[in-house]
Amino acid sequence: MAAAEVPSYLPSPQTEKHRRARNWTDAEMRGLMLVWEEFFDELKQTKRNAKVYEKMASKLLEMTGERRLGEEIKIKITNMTFQYRKLKCMTDSESVPPDWPYYLAIDRILAKVPESCDGKLPDGQQPGPSTSQTEASLSPSAKSAPLYLPYNQCSFEGRFQDDGSDSSSSLLSLKFRSEERPVRKRKGQGGHFQRKKLRLLEAMLGEQRKLSRALEETCREVRRVLDQHHLLQVQSLQLQERMMSLLEKIIAKSGV
Q1: Could you count the other beta carbons within 10 Å of the beta carbon of residue 103?
Q2: What is the pTM of this model?
Q3: What crossing angle do the helices spanning 70-90 and 26-38 adopt, rounded to 10°?
Q4: Using an 8 Å Cβ cutoff, are 70 and 50 in contact?
């Protein structure tokens, strides 16, 4: 008997790989944090870790009920690692973590990894599909106990709320930290805009003063021209009076 054929309505792995990736939901992201932390040491110790990513995809399917390819998980972890390092370098001098809901979870996973403030991953690696061993170059981190979550929305959310471990409590607090951001960064941005606005106002005031001085010079020149015109008019009237006087004298002499 011939082997059973795969139904035509089921997409092949190659088709799913080249299809536009779906956006990651919040539940998937939380599950990915736990799966990443669970398989972190195995990813670091395995040079060719494609099978590890496939196991992570299976674990994520058990936890969330959403199917993701191992390649998708690898790309997502690589991009999140790059984003984490970039934010940490930008806010390294501040005591408050950046306003990114997954920053603390990734910080816990990569707690012992040496950081570099050039916005790049270690060994010149860049985020994206071409990075295959980002996690393999990271130094060891504490491995948490694996958490099995069946596909049940209520139980999945309840596990994050009721689990007393550091992983679940930290992930649960990420959402609330975004609402408690201090105004230090906003004040810094506001101060920058205030200084920029002040410089603009000073430049406008300087231009206004230049225009005022130019207008005063123009007014003085106009007054000088008007004074000269008035003087010429007076001299013209005086000349006309003299001419009239001479004409009267001439007429008087001719009449005699």
Answers
A1: 19
A2: 0.39
A3: 90
A4: yes
Specify whether the CB–CB gap between 41 and 24 falls below 8 A: no
Q: pLDDT at position 242, please? A: 92
Q: In the numeric block, which tokens belong to residue 7?
A: 């139904």
Q: Where are the alpha helices (DSSP H) in the chain?
A: 13-18, 26-38, 40-45, 50-64, 70-90, 103-109, 153-162, 166-177, 184-255
Q: Nearest Cα to 141, choosing from 96, 97, 107? A: 107
Using alpha carbons, list the distances in angstroms from residue 31 to 27, 47, 60, 254. 6, 24, 6, 128
Angle at 107 between CA 101 and CA 108, to 5 degrees: 110
CB 128 within 8 Å of CB 79: yes
Nearest Cα to Cα of residue 171 among 105, 255, 225: 105
Distance in angstroms (rounded) separating the CA atoms of residues 157 and 145: 18
User: Tokens 């390819």 belong to which residue?
Assistant: 69
The pLDDT score that the predictor gives to residue 70 is 87
d(CA 183, CA 73): 35
Q: Give the chain's residues under pLDDT 50.
A: 1-9, 114-169, 171-172, 175-176
